Amino acid sequence: MSTSPRKKVTVPGLASMKRTGDKIAMITAYDATFAAIVDAAGVDVILVGDSVATTVQGEANTIPVTMEEMEYHVRLVRRANPAALVVGDLPFGSYQVGSSQAVTNSVRLIKAGAQAVKLEGGTTVADSIRAIADADIPVMGHIGLTPQSVHRMGGHKVQGREDGYEAGGRQRLLEDAHAVEQAGAFAVVLEGIPSHLAAEITTKLSIPTIGIGAGPQCDGQVLVIHDVLGLSEREFTFTKKFTDLRSASIAACTEYVTEVRTGSWPDAAHSFD
Ligand code: KIV
User: Fold this and answer.
1) What would the pLDDT profile of 79-90 be if each residue is shown by its tens digit?
2) Is the pTM of this model over 0.70?
3) 191 a catalytic residue
4) The dihedral of CA 17, 19, 22, 26: what is its sign?
5) Chain mean pLDDT for the chain
């Protein structure tokens, strides 16, 4: 049961937002504290992203995070009982072997508390998307700059700038978008592609597109919570610090250290007789 006063966000609800033109706000969270904060802010979708590898675990990319770790973070987020839809990310290695592995691991994330799953790729993962959807698990696609393909892409590079049908080519991305929709995905993340291509895909698909580094014309937007709050040191063109909690946190902790060292903490008001 949701503890939020908001109406529960559902998969059909997101489909109707596309029809009515209401923008979808999605953000990542990896634990109950941040899930409660973003839910209170009114987000529609909480993504328990494999970006937990870089934001929380200190990894250089998303490759190392495991299924067990994703299950753990999904469980923490669901404990906040958010009204937002909780989407669990399938980590690298949890679906690349084939459809049966993809369904098995999607079931694990749903049992941990996810209400939908997300996986990266287009035409090459269409069979897995279909199999997951056939298991009655809502599945979100993710095409364009897919961070789990970092080694193929040669870095985290904007995709779809060049014509072509090879992975990352403009025509291939259009094919990927259609393949994901045809396979039964209920929404698709468009990451790191030119705005005009994202706009074209958004017009052509009947499922919502959720952009990150894909311009303003997607049906919704997603950002990583650490970037929004200014908690991470990283800064990219496609992210924005809506506040600077890193500086505020360092300032607060510095004051604490000073007060401990000078003996002014704890004072009488915070001590017991
Ligand atoms: O893991 C993640 O945070 C993501 C978003 C950037 C879409 O996949």
Assistant:
1) 999 999 999 999
2) yes
3) yes
4) positive
5) 96
